[in-house]
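Cross-check.
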Amino acid sequence: VLAMFGQVFEKTAEMAKAYGVLNKRVDLAIDYTTHLYYGDVNAQMVVGTKPERGTSYGYTYATVSIVEEGRRLTLFAVPKGVFTTDAKVVELLLRQALRVVRVRTVYLDRWFYKGDVINKLQEMGVKFLMPAVQSKRVVEIMKSAQAPAVIDYRMGITSARKGRRWFREDSPRYRLVVAEDAGQKRAFATNLEVEPHHAHELFEMYRKRWGIETSYRVKTEFRARTTSKNYAVRLFYFLFSACLYNLWILANVHLGKLARLILEKPLITAKLFGTMLYKMFYIDDGG
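Predicted model, tokenized:
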């Protein structure tokens, strides 16, 4: 199923390139989405999640999406199992994305603030930006540093008993940027070249990441419902909804090209597009 949809996502990117919307470098976001589950918790690929609407389990998928206005295509998606590391997820998604686009910056939330993830991002040669988890050491730096500040930082481990920091051989190095927004200090982890007097710009840059959250909400308009226990069916439906979402994006790009307009809002809503597809392909019992 993944191999099949990998080809579909690549084809979609080729179509977008034909419209001229992927000719430049693009910003990407990587994130997880979870579909809540209420059945047997030992079923294939069911993972624990935060309690919500009467359950603490669900199916989790990771996606990599373009977060540029008007071309928020999903480039690939993979399922996350109990034993799948976040670093592996990032690697799988970025390898597919790098096949079809040139990447400027990858945005991630603080869930991905982990040594193996940061090492993987740097190993793959991509620029990244994410909020730093406010560990004891990061909090100390935020209190002592006068914002804006750019600090060469190495992620270490602090002993709970002795309070000493020590480093593993593969402890990642990156820039810890302390900036101020609305009177509050924030810390970002990045490998971007940042001058202190430009540190405040990271807030505006990071707001792009919300584009992937918006895409998840829109995808629910295209998602089929099922009670099947066959995980391949569930995976198929999720990836199919992502492909329909991409077609909706391309349809609006096409209309914009025809009208020679840069669309700030879609001319066709996701709901209307879904209704149009349904009517186009639905065949009643009479044939």
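The two ends are 29 Å apart (CA to CA). The mean pLDDT is 88. Passed to J.P. for a second look.
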